[in-house]
């Protein structure tokens, strides 16, 4: 008699990461993929315990991957936006991790470089714990990590994971690459900041790492999964224009000159010391744009 396929519940399945994860899982795993998004009729509401309970009873998942998030960084600075962010990015992951532990399901929650704010130029390892988010979005994501870590501490044998990533790009959402392409069609010269540095990451590569964790079941805990190498937004923009074979001029500017009112960390490079090495971020950009250097 064949073993049944593992049931994998992918939450936030309409988003940029969630939709790519669904594609990768259906292509490369034997999972019985179940998707849900809060925008679906009857979709899971991770901020509501009864909704989460109902979905766990219905699906009986072996794997739960939470790609749901409120990602409007500037929107989080408003009172209403921050309250929503605390529910979706903070308490919701805690509810999911608790139900996962109680039901022996492997759980992966996606977090971010925005939990850091020390501008550590050597980069952040997975065990760096001097958290200092510089905006409300980062605060809400740090709250989510704290809620999941409570469950990790209470259930040390449960397969609970936090995966931090940064500067995601891919199909299905407005991202930095799409923004640069749009601006490049309107202006000959683009001004881009040099003092915001992190790791551009293709959602395809991140999805593959999430599948790796779910399949290989490494030691539960915190992992970093981001494009290899560091880039400023200026570097990122130059690579995009180069890969597209465009001739736009990219001029350097700073966050202060740009007039960004929301706090942004200057340096938030994630160091991956635990998972298999990721591709260089430049390779990810080329792959996404499906062109070669001119």
Question: Short summary of the structure?
Answer:
It is globular and about 55 Å long. 39% of the residues lie in helices and 17% in strands.
Question: What labels describe this entry?
Answer:
294 residues; alpha/beta; Rossmann fold; 6-stranded parallel sheet; two-stranded parallel ribbon; 12 strands; globular
Based on the structure, what is the oligomeric state of the protein chains? single chain
Query: What is the highest CATH level, the class?
Result: Alpha Beta
Largest sheet: 6 strands, parallel
Outline? globular
Number of helices: 9
Helix content, binned percent: 25-40%
Number of beta strands: 12
Average pLDDT number? 95
- Superfamily (CATH H level) name: NAD(P)-binding Rossmann-like Domain
What is the name of the CATH architecture?
Answer: 3-Layer(aba) Sandwich
| Tally of separate domains | 1
Examine the coordinates and then state which fold CATH places here, giving the name of the CATH topology. Rossmann fold
Strand content: 15-25%
Structural class: alpha/beta
Q: Give the low-pLDDT segments.
A: none
- Which strand order do you get reading across the main beta sheet? 2-1-3-4-5-10
Indicate the radius of gyration in whole angstroms: 19 Å
Distance between the termini: 55 Å
